[in-house]
Amino acid sequence: MKNQIPTATALMNPGCNQCSLSKLCIPIAVNSEDIDRLDEIISRGRVLERGERIFEQDAPFTSCYAVRSGAVKTYTLSSDGEEQVTGFYLPGEVIGLDSIHMNQYSGTATALERTRVCEIPLGQLDEIADEIPGLQHHFMHLMSQEIRDSRQLTLLLSKKTAEERIASLLLSLSSRFSRRRLSGTEYRLPMPRSDIGNFLGLAVETISRVLTRFQNQGLVKVRGRDVEILSLEGLKGLLSHETECKRTSA
């Protein structure tokens, strides 16, 4: 039998076995045969343009989504229509886990730029989770990570200074890009400063002022959305210094 030539669609949307991000989305312990089974239920290659919604708040919960390329923000809307950004998601990260035991999505997910996602239907996932060792545990781990991140955000917004909040975000993005084998010191912010301000509870002017201060201190270089971290240790030291100052003044 002749080797089957992959279609253009298959080349653009490789399965989990060929995806460079698979180890971030699914447990390393899953063998190739089980990955093939998982691959059968995942809808790959949905493309969203900037501003397009993946799911909406209060819509019936049906699936989680793994970001394959691009970036996504999640947010909630208050009763009076005010938007509160709750998170930013990069390739290899899974969206919707905070709603996995609910009947509806707790917020809205929107593409920040041209984005490709994989849809993971919850119903079919439940059917094979019991048969694939480690899969259920892996998604429980991802959900616990979501809870931890939510708590860290609450702490970030309630106690830290503007400098600490921005330094924490830059360091978080650095770590997350590094996990994807991308540069952790030179990257482009996928979100506008208005979204960063909403997420961190800061005015856009404050963000610009703090970034200018960081540049003057030789910690970063910022050109529009392009960020170059000149001193990771300097940013980390800023966080520990602020914490120590608070302890001393207490």
Protein described:
Helices cover 44% and strands 21% of the residues. It is of the alpha+beta class and 250 residues long. The chain folds into 2 domains: 8-156, Sandwich (Jelly Rolls), CATH 2.60.120.10; 160-249, Orthogonal Bundle (Arc Repressor Mutant, subunit A), CATH 1.10.10.10. It is globular. The N and C termini lie far apart (76 Å). The model is unreliable at 1-12 and 242-250 (pLDDT under 50).
Summarize the structure in short:
The protein has about 250 residues and is α+β, with helices and mostly antiparallel strands. Helix content is about 45%, strand content about 20%. It contains nine helices and eleven strands.
Structural domain tally: 2
If you consult CATH, what is the topology of the largest domain? Jelly Rolls
Number of strands: 11
- In CATH, what is the homologous superfamily of the largest domain? Jelly Rolls
Biggest sheet architecture: 4 strands, antiparallel
- Straight-line N-to-C gap: 76 Å
Judged by helices, strands and strand pairing, the structural class is alpha+beta
What's the CATH first level of the largest domain? Mainly Beta
Q: At CATH's second level, what is the architecture of the largest domain?
A: Sandwich
Task: Name the overall outline.
Answer: globular
